[in-house]
Amino acid sequence: MGLLDRIRDPYVSRIETRLSPRQQATVYAALSFYGAAREVTSKQLVKTFLTSLGGAVPTDAGQGLLGDVLVDEGLVAMLKASRLPKPGEMVLPFVGTIEFLVAVVGMFALVDRNHHLRWEGPQTLEGAHYSSNADVAQTQLIVRWSELLRLRDVELGRRAALGTFLVNWRSSCDTLVGGFVIGISRRGLDGMRTKGRELVRALLPHQRPLFDYFIRTLENGPATAG
After folding, report:
1. H or E element: which one contains 223?
2. Helices 21-40 and 10-18 meet at what angle, rounded to 10?
3. Helices marked H in 9-97 — which ranges?
């Protein structure tokens, strides 16, 4: 990167001049995974659930701040209950473990949730109240969504969680993490760099302290061969 680029993009410069290639891949993988996981949560879970509720909720329930919070909660629950590939099942193109990657993505989801709700909630997946059991986590999520949507009867939410939603929930918990890791393994660092830079530049002010912590963790970690 040239001097002007470093001035314009201090975060990108820090990543690409102070981290090894595999550490850079860790950063770009985490941001890409977070964006992809939010999209899956929004389209496969939140949208399906709201559609199943029909006229029980306003047509714009999935938009604005409420829509963001529904996605936040759904993503935290799904990450907490996700099945992770077993060690050795796949070659990782980044530093650390899949558990580390999921933990970082979970922290971003919780930072966004706490910001949207304007409260000091848990900051790690371990502290989130959702179960690691997918069936239990689904029930907890439906109760939480019913509260946020102010449904008169939680049974409405439970019935809406059947059918397509249930299929999507189980599929997401079973395949999201492994499918993403396979995808980025095929792309490699060069394939992640362009999109990763865009995601770094798009970080919001409330996300930057966590991102700084993430980068420091990698900088202070054990040396990793490039």
Report:
1. none
2. 130
3. 10-18, 21-40, 47-53, 64-81
| Distance separating alpha carbons of residues 161 and 20, to the nearest angstrom | 44
DSSP 131-187: -SSHHHHHHHHHHHHHHHHT-S-HHHHHHHTSTHHHHHHHHHHHHHHHHHHHHHHHH
pLDDT in tens, 98-113: 888 899 999 999 999 9
pLDDT band at 88 (very low <50, low <70, confident <90, very high): low
Cα 178 from Cα 167, distance rounded (Å):
17
Q: Domain span at residue 45?
A: 14-219
Q: Report the b/e string of 6-37 with b at 16+ CB within 10 A.
A: eeebebbbbbbeebebbbbbbbbbbbbbbbbb
| Total number of domains constituting the chain | 1
In a domain, 9, yes or no: no
How far is Cα 207 from Cα 70, in angstroms, rounded to an integer?
18
